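Appendix B. Chain record.
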Amino acid sequence: MSAQQIDDQSFCQQARQAGITNAALIAENADPTTLLAALDQMVPNAPAAIHDDFATFVKLEHGILSTGGPDRPSPVSIGGPSARTALTHVQSYLRDICHLS
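Structure tokens predicted for this chain:
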């Protein structure tokens, strides 16, 4: 097994434990404080293939979850087109490499 496969497996396991799903990226009923702490811990371990995009995703989650409530802004409104690209890349990785649905 290559170092990249080990990194992928470790990261995917962390994603499962944090409650990340490919469909929503975050568990709908997740405690924001717990989730954000878990995501922050995952950033240094994100594989090179998605590291920058995952860091963008975590930054967006901080922005969204810190505002709270049903009127919270969408990731695209917070980060613009680059946010959409980052989220798409992270979702593809979670689907194709982590096999999260």
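Further analysis of this model is presented in Appendix C.
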